[in-house]
Every structure is written in structure tokens, then in C-alpha cells.
Write a structure and sequence with these properties.
By secondary structure, the protein is an alpha/beta fold. The protein contains 13 helices and 13 strands. 39% of the residues lie in helices and 15% in strands. Strand 12 (302-305), helix 11 (308-317) and strand 13 form a beta-alpha-beta unit.
Length: 375
């Protein structure tokens, strides 16, 4: 086996799908004997990265400022000095820094250049850097279609669809939370004992559907449904005003004891498993929909809008959970139908994390062995 040195770049290592995917690939590289480096401004996942055998270089390449361009030369020097084989950018601003560093290197010896498109970015010159990779990974068919529509000059053979995935061992079908966890959970939230619980996971940011979720809960309660709602997700400092608005909205609706804000939680598996239904109500199409897949892997029914990556997952795994985008009336009826008699979630996993890891490392190996464009 040829030992590779792979550097992944992203803004931070706090939380989220991009960060989690980066960590998963970094861990797999280290487990297979490769050198695995992540370059970011740091974050809560760094200790986990180091424990898994990866390395971390604390460079703030994601700060959107002209001053960040000063990192181009140090990065170029570091890539040459460290003999990096694969340079893999996962976010736009770090990708610009990486591309500027990479294109100034000797085409015969520089790393091979990979980008992953994790989001449905605005089609623009700024976003176009994510199409500059020698290989462009699309995290779903939704992203592939977006790339082909928005950047028709990008050769189709340069795009490789590698869907995100979950580990059935981490999110096992039929999982039940331990009794000690449940006791602590009900100590914090006694109102959730023996009642239907609807959960909306995700960071508190606009377009994620929090307002629709609150309105849904108000409608269900007004119609006599004894449901409770969980909004599970952290608040970024610049979005504190939005979080405060949501809490005021809950109070105005008289739902303060019914719709609960948990903040950031590290025990999402247990929260999914303790939920009756998990919802995905983002008004903006998601590139994939990791939370949807995690809940379905456990066998928990999911309801989500029929667009983007979430619609893609539900069509393949749980069509009973599909509901038209932004139609609150149909959303309410769909929730009531599944609360009454939800079809079981199929036990056979569809989107596997190991397949994603195998495909990503195979792409690295294939690219390293392929002829270089030295023109």
C-alpha cells in the first residue's frame, strides 16, 4: 500500500455535517496507515481528531477578509515541504486560499487537488472555486444536478457523487436509550414522559423551519393533539437575536411548556430514539440531510419537505415522510397521519458511512495514480 499524506481544509472544527464528514475521513485515513492532516481555525472536534491519529494545523483560512490571503505563501511552502499528496478543500474561502497556493506550485510535484461541494451555494465566481478540483465530489445527486445546471463548463466526468452516510453500529436500528439516560432526560423534561414527541434538529438559523415548526405545534395543540416539541440545536453568537425571537414566538403562542429548546446536544442518538417523529423543515434545499438519515437508521419515522437532499433520502428510504414544500396544511395532516399509524422504517440501510469512506479513499488513490495535467 502506498502511504498517502492528505490535507483537508475547512473553516473550523466545531460541529455540523461538513466538520463531521471531515473527521470521519481523517479517522479512516489514519486507521489505514495514511498521514491525515486537517487545517482549520480549530474547534471542539479537534481533540477527537487528534485522538483518532490525525494532525491539526491551526490556520484561520476561512476568515473572509483580504488579510487571509497572507496565508497563500505559507500554505504553498508547507505543502511542498510536507510532500502532501492530496489537497482537499471543503469550503469556499479555504478553497480559494488553497487554489491560489496550489496553482503556483510545480505541476509535476504539487498535490492532487480535490474539492467537495457540501452546499447549494449561490452560483457565482466566488462559489466557482469549488468546481476547480481535479475531482469534484458531490455529496448527493442533488448537488451533482446543481453543479451541472450552474456550471455547465464543468466536465461531467470530473464530478463524482459520493453520498454521505451513517454507521449502523453507531445508529443501530431499533435502538433504545439506556434507562439511566432516560431517567436523567425525564428529570430535565418531566413533561416528555409517555407523550408523543416531535423533534426538529439543527442549528438555530433562519430558513431551517423553526417558525413553521412552532406554528405546526400550535395547530396540533389547538386540534387536541397532546404532542410536545423539541428544538435541538446550538445558537451561534451572531444568531442570538433570531433565537430570542423564536423563544418570544413560543411564549406568544402559549407553548412555553410544550415547545422546548435544548441547545446543543452531544447525545443526538438518544434524543432521536426518544422521539416519536423527527422533522426536517428547511425552506432552503439541503445538500444531503444527515439528521434525517441518522433518525431513519434508528428506525424513527421522519417527515421532511420534498426537495433537495432530504427529499432524495426520503424517496429512497421512507416515502411516507414526504410532504410538499412550505404547505403547512399538508404538513399538519402528514404529522397527524404518522402519529396515528406510521409505516415502519425499512431496516435495510441504504446510505452507509463505510461506503462513503471507501469511495473517498479510492478516489484519492485513483487520482494519485492518474496522469497529471501539466499544461
Amino acid at each position: 500500500m502506498v502511504r498517502l499524506s492528505v490535507a483537508q481544509l475547512l473553516p473550523t472544527m466545531h460541529s455540523g455535517g461538513v466538520e463531521r464528514g471531515t473527521l470521519e475521513v481523517a479517522r479512516e485515513l489514519a486507521e489505514r496507515g495514511h498521514r491525515s492532516i486537517v487545517i482549520s481555525a480549530g474547534g471542539r472536534l479537534v481533540p477527537e481528531l487528534l485522538k483518532a491519529g490525525g494532525e491539526h494545523l491551526t490556520w484561520p483560512l476561512g476568515v473572509k477578509s483580504p488579510l487571509t490571503l497572507r496565508w497563500v505563501w505559507p500554505l504553498r511552502h508547507w505543502l511542498a515541504e510536507q510532500h502532501i499528496d492530496i489537497l482537499h478543500a471543503r469550503s469556499r474561502f479555504p478553497a480559494w486560499i488553497a487554489w491560489l497556493a496550489w496553482r503556483g506550485m510545480d505541476p509535476v510535484t504539487r498535490p492532487r487537488w480535490v474539492t467537495t461541494v457540501h452546499g447549494l451555494y449561490s452560483v457565482s465566481r466566488y462559489s466557482a472555486v469549488m468546481t476547480y478540483g481535479e475531482r469534484v465530489i458531490a455529496v448527493s445527486a442533488t448537488i451533482r444536478d446543481y453543479l451541472q445546471r450552474g456550471y455547465p463548463e464543468l466536465p461531467a466526468e470530473q464530478i463524482q457523487v459520493i453520498p454521505r452516510g451513517v454507521d449502523p453500529a453507531e445508529f443501530p436500528y431499533g435502538y433504545q436509550p439506556p434507562s439511566a439516560w432516560l431517567a436523567e432526560w425525564h428529570r430535565h423534561y418531566p413533561q416528555l414522559r409517555n407523550v408523543p414527541v416531535l423533534t426538529l434538529p439543527g442549528r438555530l438559523s433562519r430558513l431551517k423551519g423553526h417558525e413553521e415548526f412552532i406554528e405546526l405545534m400550535a395547530r396540533l395543540r389547538a386540534q387536541g393533539w397532546p404532542v410536545y416539541g423539541l428544538i435541538v440545536g446550538g445558537v451561534e453568537p451572531r444568531r442570538q437575536r433570531y433565537a430570542d425571537q423564536l423563544r418570544r414566538r413560543v411564549q406568544e403562542k402559549g407553548l412555553s411548556e410544550v415547545v422546548l429548546f435544548t441547545g446543543h446536544r452531544a447525545d443526538m442518538r438518544e434524543i432521536y430514539a426518544a422521539s416519536t417523529l423527527v422533522l426536517s423543515l428547511s425552506m432552503k434545499p439541503e445538500s444531503f440531510g444527515r439528521t434525517v438519515l441518522e433518525a431513519l437508521s434508528l428506525g424513527v419515522p421522519v417527515i421532511g419537505y420534498d426537495h433537495g437532499g432530504v427529499g432524495e433520502i426520503l424517496h429512497r428510504v421512507y416515502p411516507a415522510g414526504l410532504t410538499p414544500l412550505g404547505d403547512l396544511e399538508q404538513l399538519t395532516e402528514r404529522v397527524k397521519a404518522l402519529l396515528t399509524a406510521a409505516p415502519p422504517v425499512p431496516a435495510e440501510p441504504v446510505f452507509l458511512r463505510q461506503r462513503m469512506l471507501d469511495d473517498t479513499l479510492a478516489l484519492y488513490a485513483e487520482l494519485c495514480e492518474s496522469p497529471r495535467n501539466t499544461g
